[in-house]
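Duplicate of #3305? Posting structure anyway:
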């Protein structure tokens, strides 16, 4: 059966030829000595994007001592990209690969015969946990004995992207919120009408609540990324949890002039979960749906069961473009501009790394856009009767 691809060439170098390429590159003493001084994660790939050489930084990153475990693999395969096994032909051949900066940098350097540099966001699964990378990828052609190879350098720019996101949040969004709060307090100081005073106090409380919530959210995401987030399992009621999330997001500016409806057939049940984390996930789902909904529009939410699973879902009518769908859960990707993109990323980070759940979505003409959080319905041993 012929290999298929949705983007880059599926053709692969044979194992025998890979070994010959490895020996060829490794025999170039001057090159290997210079290559060893490269700052960053480096490897050498052949015309079919398969690795034939690597520096110590790459081996250390992957937790291996020799090249043998990854020899002949493509970049997405040796760093465990979530899309690398979607197609039989591997890295570079899935629909999502068309938006990968690493693949595009390699293809551009192959096409032009010159160095190419791209930024990319990569989602990986390591030891069963999701981890996201922001990388600067440089692909440079080099010739050995008439054969062209490509030096691939991966520079981790995740901290730079985190700083940009925090600067946007704290220096722009929160500064604007605090400016609005200061304006309301100035008006409040001069206001004498009791009804107007109560309304101003309410608006001030809403703004301060949103500011505190954003700060707590950022602290929570950073702790989750560092593996420092503590999970506190407790018994909760599904409908009460969803209703509480809806009530909280109604105070957010994203909910102004829009409606959130919980379906009447939502499953009302008890289960054990970290209530604070799950509520954070649901609030983010609702916020994203509200931001995609036009004024006077409605976001629908609900709860259903499937055997031993409990599923929270949020629906809006706005369809997500195909190119956006391919990049939704990447850490730094956003349709809102540079320095954004933590919404869907944090949803999957918290759900799949800490709540032992799964995030999925559909977006089509028939169903609209529906995000679902599937969780194990379980009970802690300390609870004998959830109805009491």
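Output from current build:
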């Amino acid at each position: 059966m012929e290999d298929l691809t949705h983007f880059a060439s599926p053709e692969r170098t044979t194992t025998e030829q890979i070994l010959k390429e490895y020996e060829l590159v490794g025999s170039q003493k001057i090159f290997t000595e210079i290559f060893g001084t490269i700052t960053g994660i480096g490897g050498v790939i052949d015309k079919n994007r398969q690795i034939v050489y690597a520096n110590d930084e790459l081996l250390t990153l992957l937790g291996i001592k020799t090249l043998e475990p990854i020899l002949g693999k493509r970049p997405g395969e040796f760093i465990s990209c979530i899309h690398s096994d979607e197609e039989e032909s591997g890295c570079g051949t899935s629909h999502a690969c068309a938006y990968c900066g690493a693949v595009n940098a390699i293809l551009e350097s192959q096409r032009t015969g010159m160095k190419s540099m791209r930024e990319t966001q990569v989602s990986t699964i390591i030891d069963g946990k999701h981890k996201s990378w922001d990388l600067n990828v440089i692909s440079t052609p080099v010739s050995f004995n008439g054969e062209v190879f490509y030096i691939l350098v991966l520079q981790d720019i995740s901290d730079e992207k985190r700083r940009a996101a925090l600067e946007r949040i704290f220096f722009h969004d929160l500064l604007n919120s605090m400016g609005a709060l200061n304006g309301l307090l100035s008006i409040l100081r001069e206001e004498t009408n009791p009804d107007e005073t109560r309304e101003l106090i309410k608006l001030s409380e809403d703004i301060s609540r949103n500011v505190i919530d954003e700060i707590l959210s950022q602290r929570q995401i950073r702790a989750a990324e560092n593996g420092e987030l503590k999970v506190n399992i407790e018994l909760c009621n599904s409908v009460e949890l969803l209703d509480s999330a809806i009530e909280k997001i109604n105070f957010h500016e994203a909910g102004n002039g829009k409606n959130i409806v919980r379906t009447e057939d939502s499953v009302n049940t008890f289960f054990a979960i970290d209530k604070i984390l799950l509520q954070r996930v649901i609030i983010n789902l609702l916020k994203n749906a509200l931001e995609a909904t036009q004024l006077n529009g409605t976001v629908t939410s609900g709860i259903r069961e499937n055997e031993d699973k409990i599923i929270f879902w949020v629906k809006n009518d706005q369809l997500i473009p195909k190119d956006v769908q391919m990049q939704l859960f990447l850490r730094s990707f956003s349709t809102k501009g540079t320095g954004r993109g933590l919404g869907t990323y944090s949803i999957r980070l918290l759900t799949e790394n800490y709540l032992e759940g799964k995030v999925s979505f559909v977006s089509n003409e028939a169903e609209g856009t529906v995000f679902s959080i599937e969780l194990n319905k379980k009970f802690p041993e300390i609870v004998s009767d959830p109805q009491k």
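Confirmed duplicate; merging threads. The CA atoms of residues 225 and 335 lie 22 Å apart. Residues 15-156 form a domain with the Beta-Lactamase fold (CATH 3.30.450.20).
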